[in-house]
Design a protein that fits this description.
Chain B contains 19 helices and 5 strands. Chain B has 478 residues and is mostly helical. Chain C has a domain of 63 residues: NADH:ubiquinone/plastoquinone oxidoreductase, chain 3 (Methane Monooxygenase Hydroxylase, Chain G, domain 1). Classes of the chains: A mainly alpha (100), B mainly alpha (478), C mainly alpha (116). Chains A and B meet through helix 1, helix 2 and helix 3 of A and helix 5 and helix 6 of B.
Chain lengths: 100, 478, 116
């Protein structure tokens, strides 16, 4: 039996990798993947905590986060496709000129 | 069943109107979607009226996930005003830019629904879902002008940074759940009394604040604001600047004052620093801007700083002052963006400072209107801006934050420079080149008229509204 | 105190992450040129992308698939608990599916599914 704190530690690692990924990467698609990693880290933590509490509400919250993440993916990909159409290039690297 | 849904009447009205619009958009005529704007406006105005009739009622729905109290009603009203004015401004603006579409109105209504849900949420899950409903709609709206790279880039940046903030927010919820075993706001408050120094709860709370910081665009989470405000269609910018900010403050105030009341000394200290940084940075960078939309973006960051002063001050005066400030800020900012939206030079929107040179000589009425909105942003009596600042800064002094109030007043003085520069351009410069012209739009003028009415109503007779605002925060403070 | 591991992981990760961002900015020279932003840094001009051009309509279909595929996930918890939830649960699910179908209809009628 793996102790619960292992899961929470793993989720903290995943979350930090996600945050660092967002900060250091310049490619929108990779940034986007890092954001998904952050959301999934939260999912993992919720499932672990929910398992300890023996309650289902954390799992329900995970369902909501997953569906919202899917909606986010759809909107994000649509925005990326729009920029592709505008710049008439299929390379994502072209978007790296954006700075904030 | 039906009685239980009464507290949700404003929400349901907006949701039903959004559904109706989806159906109407599929029906003929294929071109010309102006009638959808009228239906959307009717829905929002009905929700506004519905919210007003619910004043003084309390209730919960869906197993305590959603609630209704005076606080929610007040913010519903603010949000509905913002949405209604933006819809009025949009109708002719979209047609002029050849982007009139059913999606626009549907998305504006869905964003409004998300904002109102945030005001009525009693559970972190609902706050999260509402936040996403609002944000996802606004990301798409920001990229509405598909043919313009600036609009697409604005949408992209808003999306990436907004989603980043969502990640923090969700992880914060997860850690708070881990510490307290619940996501309901009142039960977190009950559970957190005994675990004040629990690191899990503290980190979770901190991550939650990061997420909120992005949504209300406080320093250091403000980087997206200038680019998004500049690139997005001006009507959408107005909605992002007012409605989404009001919604963010709604959830933030509820979480701070009713859920994490035990930690008030801690977060007040933190927000003291954030408030000072936010208003100073916003004002200093705004001075250097020549693009009016970008200048208003930095000015909106500064105004978030002023509102945070009220949050730090706390109590009925401070929190009530923030609600008053949000209402006055909604009227003033929608008005200012609305005036910019109506003006065009050649076939372009007039957004550069030079476009405004000599406007007063040619179009005195519109120039005067824009000048009044800018004066309200400065905080000149007798406009609403003066009353808002007076109450918020007064609350800070009353609570003993003298230095904070002094810094805020100094900031307001700095801010006067860049607002008045626009007025000087309009009244004292000679126009050169292609003349700047207001676009013919009855709905747009009506929106400006309503906003101007709000600015003077709140400026000349602020006391009744302030009383309402203080009554509205009472449920949070008990 | 059982969460000390998390704190430690956060601390170490911040340290490592900060070092990885901070050290290069301090040490490495930076000359960003257009050439460096290209996918291949061998100096040869790009003729075409290795995977070639792909039709944008594939991505549209993929986006729609993601939405409707994942939203169905919300039905599973209800299906497990269908009897205890009874008629109110059934009605709630009908409302949910109604909204989903409305979205599907909108996508269909707006031409989102047209291949050509």
């Amino acid at each position: 039996m793996v102790p619960e704190s292992y899961y929470t530690a793993l989720s903290a690692i995943l979350f930090t990798i996600g945050v660092v990924g967002v900060l250091v990467r310049r490619n929108p698609l990779v940034i986007f993947m890092s954001i998904e990693l952050m959301l999934n880290a939260a999912n993992l933590a919720l499932v672990a905590f929910g398992h300890r509490a023996g309650a289902a509400d954390a799992q329900v919250l995970v369902f909501f986060i997953m569906t919202v993440a899917a909606a986010e993916v759809a909107v994000g990909l649509a925005i990326i496709v729009t920029i592709f159409r505008l710049q008439r290039r299929l390379s994502v690297d072209e978007l790296s000129i954006m700075r904030w | 069943m039906s009685a239980a849904l009464v507290p949700l009447a404003p929400l349901l009205l907006v949701a039903a109107t959004a559904g109706l619009l989806i159906v109407l958009d599929l029906l003929p005529p294929r071109e010309g979607k102006g009638h959808l704007g009228v239906v959307a406006l009717a829905g929002v105005v009905a929700a506004l009226a519905g919210a007003l009739t619910l004043w003084g009622r309390e209730g919960r729905a869906f197993g305590g996930m959603l609630l209704l109290d005076n606080f929610a009603v007040f913010l519903d009203v603010v949000i509905c005003y913002a949405a209604a004015l933006v819809l009025l401004l949009s109708m002719d603006y979209l047609r002029r830019n050849g982007m009139e579409s059913g999606e626009y109105y549907i998305l504006v209504l869905l964003a409004t629904l998300g904002m109102m849900l945030m005001a009525q949420a009693a559970d972190l899950i609902v706050i999260f879902l509402a936040l996403e409903l609002m944000s996802l709609s606004l990301y798409v709206l920001a990229g509405l002008f598909r043919g313009r790279l600036t609009s697409a880039e604005s949408s992209m940046k808003y999306f990436l940074l907004g989603a980043f903030a969502t990640g923090f927010f969700v992880y914060g919820i997860a850690l708070i759940y881990g510490a307290t075993g619940t996501t309901a706001l009142d039960r977190i408050a009950a559970a957190s009394g005994g675990l004040q120094r629990d690191p899990l709860l503290l980190i979770g709370f901190g991550l939650l604040l990061v997420g909120f910081g992005f949504k209300i665009s406080s320093v250091p989470f403000h980087m997206w604001v200038p680019d998004v405000y500049e690139g997005a269609p001006t009507s959408v910018t107005a909605l992002i600047a007012t409605g989404s900010k009001a919604a963010g403050f709604a959830a933030l105030l509820r979480v701070l004052f009713s859920t994490f009341k035990v930690a008030q000394p801690d977060w007040a200290l933190l927000l003291w620093v954030v408030a000072v940084l936010t208003m100073t940075l916003g004002n200093v960078i705004a001075i250097a801007q020549s693009n009016l939309k970008r200048m208003l973006a930095y000015s909106s960051i500064a105004h978030v700083g002023y509102m945070l002063v009220g949050v730090v001050a706390g109590g009925a005066l401070g929190a009530g002052g923030v609600l008053f400030y949000l209402l006055m800020y909604t009227f003033t900012t929608v008005g200012a963006f609305g005036a910019i939206l109506l003006l065009e030079r050649g076939r372009q929107e007039a957004v550069e400072l030079d476009d405004y040179a000599g406007l007063a000589a040619r179009h005195p009425l519109l120039a005067l209107t824009l000048a009044l909105f800018l004066l309200s942003l400065v905080g000149m009596p007798p406009t609403a801006g003066f009353a808002g600042k007076f109450y918020v800064f007064g609350a800070a002094i009353r609570s003993g934050y003298i230095w904070l109030a002094v810094i805020a007043v100094l900031n307001s003085a700095v801010a006067a420079y860049y607002y008045l520069r626009v007025v000087v351009y309009m009244y004292m410069r000679e126009a050169e080149g292609v003349p700047t012209r207001p676009a013919p739009s009855f709905a747009g003028r009506l929106a400006l008229g309503v906003a101007l009415w709000g600015v003077f109503q709140l400026g000349l007779m602020p006391a009744p509204v302030l009383d309402l605002a203080q009554a509205a925060v009472a449920p949070l403070l008990r | 105190m059982e969460y000390v591991t998390i704190l430690m992981v956060f601390g170490i990760a911040l340290l490592v992450g900060g070092a990885m961002i901070g050290l290069p900015t301090l040490l490495a020279p930076r000359r960003a040129t257009a050439v460096k932003a290209e996918p291949f840094e061998c100096g040869k001009d790009l003729l075409a992308l290795p995977e070639g051009r792909f039709a944008i309509k594939f991505s549209t279909v993929a986006i729609f698939f993601i939405i409707f595929d994942i939203e169905v996930m919300l039905i599973f918890p209800w299906a497990v608990q269908v009897r205890p939830l009874g008629w109110p649960g059934y009605l709630a699910m009908l409302v949910f599916l109604g909204i989903l179908m409305l979205g599907f209809l909108y996508m269909w009628k707006k031409g989102g599914l047209e291949w050509d």
